[in-house]
Amino acid sequence: MILPLLLTSLLSSPLPPPDGIAALVGDQPILVSDVSEALHYQVQANPGLEKLSPPDRAKRVLDQLVDDKILLIRAKAETLDVSESEVNARVEQRLSEMTQRAGGTEALVQMLKQKGGLTLGQYRLRLAREIREEGLKEKLRDKYVGKIDPVREEVLAFYKEYKDSMPMLPDQVKLAQIVVKITSDPKRDSAAHQKALDAIEKLRQGADFATLAKELSQDPGSRDSGGDIGFTHRGELDPVYERAALALEVGRYTQTPVRSKFGWHVIELVAKRDQEFRTRHILFSLVPDATDTARAKELADSLRRVADAGGDFAALAREYSAEKASASFGGTLGWYPENELQGQFKDLISSIPTGKTGAPVLTADGFLVIRVEERLESRKLTPDEDWSRLSQLAAQMLSNRKMSTWLGHWREQVPVDIRLTPQELARRIGS
Predict the structure, then answer these.
(1) End-of-domain residue from the set 285, 315, 345
(2) Is residue 12 domain-shared with residue 152, that is, in the same domain?
(3) pLDDT tens, 9-34?
């Protein structure tokens, strides 16, 4: 499972060592800290690496990073691209899954801060970069390798070759969810929306944005400065707010109100530079109150009762869940190794019997209703029980072999300068 490993790697890695260039691929440097970070992740993904000597571990990781750089250079030469919308969608999906595993947004923020030294906005930027690079390599693989469907004999040959080295499948649990957001009363929402419309009309009639923000905005942090929140990095603000702001031309304001989790905004884009942008806004706040929380809790409780009385959980998720990515699949989150669940989420899952739905759990912005659909005990992969998974693994191996052939050709076209010996690299990263 890639996501929990990414999270574990991030939260367990020490501060990077003093940097230096370990290798130069074309004009792209690979830093000592890059190798250190990748090593922590790869050991999590493949504990067998710990059996290698420190220099051999360092060399293997550096070789992989060199190959990754060559693939990205080739993707650039092929003018391959990953759309911003695709990257954003994947970022939101991963953050949603990581938030569930951590036990809520606040828990994830605390883990990022305490163990990784990153804010959620900083991690979002880092994740977007990683996802964009993954997407480029996927497109390169699609172009030169394509889809591989191994025949039965190839799957059996793969199993025979690797069965003794395959790791045990851990205890796993299949989960589904319904997310009930705490939202403000529709009447209050409508009234705030109308106020935002009225503010836009005043701007059209020539009102000064800063003066209007001082008069009307309900954001105490920016009201006195005319709604100006200064420069922010991409990924640091509410995604809805950010998309609306970046769709504007500098000096323009939104022609319709923008709804974020904080309320209705009128946004003006003041300036842009590199990965930063500056906005000011007029906010008509819609912070949910106790009545809103009680209404959401009542809905979550009723959905749980219906599900445990034999109701169709998938149908309930499609109709009521506010988390649309999983709702479109009937709330299904998929299979998770139980030992990789974390925090409040882990305690919750362990308390829910198989085939039952847990009591709604209050999160930062709503209630989480979790159902444990199935459980599987730890075991070895076998052709009888895991044919689909073995087919996927065999296809991946055949794909990798074909891709390695192409990589060998491309490697000859890119100058690679290894600056540090494996022994020196291992010493610097403390491997």
Answers:
(1) 285
(2) yes
(3) 334 444 344 478 999 999 999 999 99
DSSP state of 260: E
Rg over alpha carbons for the chain, rounded to the nearest Å, is 25
Burial class (CB in 10 A: 0-12, 13-18, 19+), 220: exposed
CATH number at residue 55: 1.10.4030.10
- With a cut of 90, say whether residue 360 has pLDDT above it: yes
Report how far residue 261's alpha carbon sits from residue 150's, in angstroms, rounded to the nearest whole number: 47
| Domain total in the chain | 3
Q: What would the DSSP string read from start to end of 212-247?
A: HHHHH---TTTGGGTTEEEEEETTSS-HHHHHHHHT
The amino acid occupying position 65 is L
Look up the pTM and report it.
Answer: 0.53
Q: 25 and 152: one domain?
A: yes
The sign of the CA dihedral 250, 245, 272, 218 is: positive
Closest CA to 285 of 259, 323, 321: 259
Same domain, 160 and 20: yes
In the block, which residue shows the tokens 């191996």? 397
Q: Do residues 23 and 65 make contact, with C-beta atoms less than 8 angstroms apart?
A: yes
4: left (phi over 0), alpha (psi -120 to 50) or beta: alpha
Q: How many Å apart are CA 288 and CA 261, to the nearest integer?
A: 10
| Same structural domain, 224 and 340 | no
Query: For all residues of the chain together, what is the average pLDDT?
Result: 89
- Predicted confidence at residue 215, as pLDDT, reads 97
Same domain, 323 and 346: yes
Burial class (CB in 10 A: 0-12, 13-18, 19+), 425: buried
State pLDDT tens for residues 81-99.
998 888 988 888 888 888 8
Task: Determine the structural domain holding residue 17 and report its residue range.
Answer: 2-164+383-429
Residue 371's beta-bridge partner residues? 176, 357
Collect all residues with Cβ–Cβ distance below 8 Å to 179 and sequence separation of at least 6. 321, 322, 323, 326, 366, 367, 368, 369
φ, ψ of residue 106 in degrees (nearest 5): -65, -40
Given the structure tokens 């000859």, which residue do they identify?
412
The answer to whether the CB of 174 falls within 8 A of the CB of 335 is yes
* Residues 237 and 293 placed together within one structural domain of the fold: no
Judge whether 418 and 208 are in contact, CB under 8 Å. no
